[in-house]
Predict the 3D structure of the following.
Amino acid sequence: MRALRRAALLYGAAATALLGAVAVLGDGTATTYAAALVASWWLAPALVVVPVAVALRAWTVLASVLVPAVAAGALLGPYALPGRGGGAADLRVAAFNTSGWYGLGALDELVGRHAPDVLLLQEVTGTSRRQLEGAHPRYRHRWHGSLSAAAGTPGVDDGDAVWSTLPIVAVEPVTGLPRGARPGAVVVLDARPLGGPARLAVLSVHLASPCLACTPSGRRANPAGGTGEAARTRVAEARRYAAVVRELARRGPVVLGGDLNSSDLNEPLRVLTGDGPGGGGLTDVHRAVGTRPQFTRGAGPGFARVDAVLVAGLEPVADAEGEAGGSTHSPVVADLRWRR
């Protein structure tokens, strides 16, 4: 028993110190970035230690795990709340990073099972783009962004895409992104066929990759640089997209989805969903109506939730994680309702 108390005290002290480091250093180091990304895993034990410490009247242990327990409750507690979302949906959006590209099987599964109205795809390479031509003709309206390498970003040969059953009426490039960022665009859809507005702005986004073993040049190149530089690039991207969606939201509903390389404790997601100055004011559909934790990065189960659908001017109804196995990511499927 004494050994268990020591272990609990050590865990509580270490978890509290790591939370402090994440708060101070943010995504600027490999350790704090990774710790924030997988925080649900190392904070969850605190929720078990607390009731055991209370039952055993181990007040010192309770005090040591109090901070990580509060953080774990904030991260995981909402999934236990009843009555999250539900009801009829007007629009279904799926975000899917096709990284690794194992062929059309995963996309066939996603479309066949969930039939999203809008598909936001990331890491569409030259090879996969050729294979995607003609696939799933129900998505008559398609936009494919420039491959990053073709757009002057060395080391990355992929781009984003938007497939839609709704007509595309405009494509507006996103300017002002930092060096090392993938190109972005606002794809404007006419949502009236689904009872929505004439203008629905959607963005398929892939924030800078955090490849910890990559370098700015060489065999494993990362256009966003090393860990600290990539973190700064992601935050700068998030701030620019936050400014873009704030302006877009004045004209109609907005959907931003994709691989944010950011989880709940990482700064980019907080910037995009923040309501204060510089925040995007977007609603994280999963945080609003998700009923269980999602870990979209890595094959079932993954280790972190880096893929998300964020909205403004739309009401979240449901959020689900699609089947993994066709990519190094699993897709996210969000059901939404027009605000009347």
